[in-house]
């Protein structure tokens, strides 16, 4: 474990997704205690995307943006919202120079699959259709997310390919949860890792799937054909149950002819980039922005 991160582990709150309401409350309190992001260089606006039902979004517009990112927050499909994601969305927009459309998708277990994916996909279509209003090129729209949000981004890319839907320039997948089966080495053996462990991941999938059987749009690693997908950046954490499924997905993308940049961050755990004082966290956050900037460049 990175020593700067390890020092914080005794102070991290436990995540219990078996109690969604309490888990949401704890995440909201944690987010409220973080420093307020500097949005002086951004135009921030709350909007509602017309859909059934409507989807709340928060739009972060830097000056002279070239492209846009449809961004899905993490939280195991259960926690998180536009407010808890405010810091990260603002940092991405400021660091990358891209318009960031942060999606307030419906959460499980009240709204199991495919509610969150339907919400995110509706926002993707809206972003492409309103690119001129947002001041960006409709051919420079990326999708991305952290953890459960990374799952939604990968699923959106699969769905857009299969349905000849909105064009996606790039996938930004940060520690995504992609496989409901939990059969990889990291998923089986990381039973006491911080933030996310085997039991937490099991609860996440139970809430998200409900009584349904997983499909590739719910668990993208179940897709048998990964050809024709947008180029991807995949970031993994060493002590993360999702680690091995993410690495496997990146390799399968490569084998299908998809350009991939894969970064396995040594000494980190799931979501540890929230510990902003750690040097490795600062590098992780800066790299996400830099990768996105390059992907949406002319």
TrEMBL record:
Keywords (A to Z) from UniProt: Hydrolase
All residue ranges annotated as the Alpha/beta hydrolase fold-3 domain in the record: 69-272
Top-level taxon of the source organism: Bacteria
Molecular function per GO: hydrolase activity
Hydrolase listed as a keyword: yes
Protein name as it appears in the record: Acetyl esterase/lipase
Top-level taxonomy: Bacteria, Bacillati, Actinomycetota, Actinomycetes, Streptosporangiales
């Amino acid at each position: 474990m990175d020593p700067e991160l390890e020092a914080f582990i005794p102070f991290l709150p436990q995540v219990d997704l078996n109690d969604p309401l309490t888990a949401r409350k704890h995440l909201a309190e944690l987010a409220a205690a973080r420093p307020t992001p500097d949005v002086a260089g951004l135009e921030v606006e709350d909007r509602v995307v017309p859909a059934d039902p409507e989807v709340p979004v928060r739009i972060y517009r830097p000056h002279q943006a070239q492209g846009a990112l449809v961004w899905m927050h993490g939280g195991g499909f259960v926690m998180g919202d536009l407010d808890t994601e405010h810091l990260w969305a603002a940092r991405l927009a400021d660091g990358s120079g891209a318009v960031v459309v942060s999606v307030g998708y419906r959460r499980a277990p009240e709204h199991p699959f495919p509610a969150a994916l339907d919400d995110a996909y509706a926002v993707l279509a809206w972003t492409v259709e309103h690119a001129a209003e947002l001041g960006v090129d409709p051919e420079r729209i990326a999708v991305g997310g952290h953890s459960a949000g990374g799952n939604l981004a990968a699923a959106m890319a699969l769905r857009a390919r299969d349905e000849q839907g909105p064009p996606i320039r790039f996938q930004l997948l940060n520690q995504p949860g992609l496989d409901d089966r939990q059969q990889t080495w990291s998923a089986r053996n990381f039973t006491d890792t911080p933030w996310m462990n085997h039991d937490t991941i099991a609860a996440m999938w139970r809430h998200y799937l409900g009584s349904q059987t997983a499909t590739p749009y719910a668990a993208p690693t179940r897709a048998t054909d990964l050809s024709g997908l947008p180029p991807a950046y995949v970031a993994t954490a060493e002590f993360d149950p999702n680690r091995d499924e993410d690495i496997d997905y990146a390799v399968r993308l490569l084998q299908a002819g998809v350009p991939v940049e894969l970064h396995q961050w040594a000494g980190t755990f799931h979501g540890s980039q929230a510990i902003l004082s750690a040097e490795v966290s600062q590098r992780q956050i800066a790299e996400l922005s830099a990768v996105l900037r390059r992907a949406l460049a002319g």
